[in-house]
């Protein structure tokens, strides 16, 4: 299970074999069944997780009970509620498995120990946090400046393998539109081809 984590770490920072093993030993494996929540609104997030198998959605319910998907996480992606995890406050998010999944969990306490014992780990998480911030900024700019049609096209092109694993309802919740409107977009695009 840790092979994918080793590869993910190596994409961001250079650790010795000993440091990589030491860091990976902080993680606990967990199997998660489809439709199982690993975090619900109101709970305090006590983990960061690395997905080794499966698919998750991270979402919020608005005041009308509609899902607003922040992101999906598949193999080789990280998931958490960073606000709840960092500040140890109740979460506003839900994290649900969309498929039977396997994850590696690290607790806040163990992450802090990793920072102390392996200095390069702080660099690893700084780099990942910066990349996440860039992705969220781009997503916000796209949401504010592009039509729903263009956002759907961009999502389908950028995440083609992910899009095939999701329902129209899930994609629509990510794009911030109704699934009926997504169906109209897809129909219109298929006619243009």
Keywords:
Jelly Rolls, 4-stranded antiparallel beta sheet, 51% helix, alpha+beta, 193 residues
Please give a structural write-up:
This is cAMP-binding domain of CRP or a regulatory subunit of cAMP-dependent protein kinases. InterPro entries: cNMP-bd_dom, cNMP-bd_dom_sf, RmlC-like_jellyroll. It comes from Chryseolinea serpens. Residues 31-110 form the Cyclic nucleotide-binding domain. With 193 residues, this protein is α+β, with helices and mostly antiparallel strands. The protein has a domain at 2-118: Jelly Rolls (Sandwich). Helices cover 51% and strands 22% of the residues. It has nine helices and eight strands. It has helices spanning 2-12, 17-24, 82-87, 108-117, 120-145, 148-158, 160-163, 168-175, 179-192; strands at 28-32, 37-39, 47-53, 55-61, 67-74, 78-79, 94-97, 101-107. The strands form two sheets. The chain has a four-stranded antiparallel sheet. Strands 2-7-4-5 form a four-stranded antiparallel sheet, covered by helices on one side. The protein is globular and about 55 Å long.
């Amino acid at each position: 299970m840790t092979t994918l984590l080793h590869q993910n770490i190596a994409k961001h920072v250079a650790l010795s074999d000993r440091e990589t093993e030491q860091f990976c030993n902080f993680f606990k494996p967990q199997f998660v069944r489809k439709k199982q929540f690993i975090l619900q609104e109101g709970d305090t997030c006590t983990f960061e997780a690395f997905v080794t198998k499966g698919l998750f959605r991270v979402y919020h319910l608005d005041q009308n009970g509609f899902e607003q998907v922040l992101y999906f996480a598949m193999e080789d992606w990280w998931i958490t509620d960073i606000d709840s995890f960092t500040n140890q406050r109740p979460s506003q998010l839900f994290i649900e498995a969309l498929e039977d999944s396997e994850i590696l969990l690290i607790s806040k306490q163990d992450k802090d120990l990793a920072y102390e014992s392996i200095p390069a780990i702080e660099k690893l998480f700084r780099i990942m946090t910066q990349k996440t911030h860039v992705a969220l900024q781009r997503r916000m700019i796209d949401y504010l400046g592009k039509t729903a049609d263009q956002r759907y096209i961009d999502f389908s092109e950028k995440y083609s393998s992910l899009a095939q694993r999701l329902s129209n309802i899930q994609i629509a919740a990510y794009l911030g539109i109704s699934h009926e409107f997504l169906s109209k977009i897809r129909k219109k695009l298929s006619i243009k081809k």
